[in-house]
Amino acid sequence: MSGSHQIQLRHIVVEKETVANLLKETIDSLPSAKDRVQMLMRLAEKYSICESKDDGGNLGWIELDWEKVSPGSLSSPAGEYFTLANHELETIVREASEKMTLLKGILFGPVKTSQGYHLVLISQEYATRRL
Fold first, then answer.
1. CB–CB of 4/64 below 8 Å?
2. Is the pLDDT of residue 42 over 50?
3. Tell me, what's the pLDDT at 81?
4. By the 8 A CB rule, do 64 and 7 touch?
5. Burial 81-114 (b: 16+ CB within 10 A, else e)
């Protein structure tokens, strides 16, 4: 049985870990996943150093778990090496998803890449199975 698992990612990236931790506390204090997504979007617009801040930290959709193809593979569905411009972050996201430490509506991070400290959230998820 094969299928498709796609996630839409949003994030905030800042230069200092202390700022990332304060933003995380603010977002984590909210009771629902919907509230956390909306707060991340607002905070990304205000504090993120990434261009995605203009779209609420939206990094777009990533295809996961289709026959366990690793990022950077020439046999990826779209024929691309990576989906995200930040390859370090994409590798972290894929590993966290596989380990089930990155879940929809629950803030993940901060994680450090050469770009800064990221807080990542799955805002939407879509999965199909083929028999």
1. no
2. yes
3. 55
4. yes
5. ebbbebeebbbbbbebbeeeebeeeebbbbbeee
Question: What residue segments make up the domains of the chain, in order of their start?
Answer: 2-130
pLDDT greater than 90 at residue 98:
no
φ, ψ at 114 (rounded to 5°): -65, -20
Cis geometry, peptide bond prior to residue 31 (ω within 30 degrees of 0): no
**What CATH number has the domain spanning 2-130?**
3.10.50.40
Nearest residue to 3 via CA among 101, 100, 126: 126
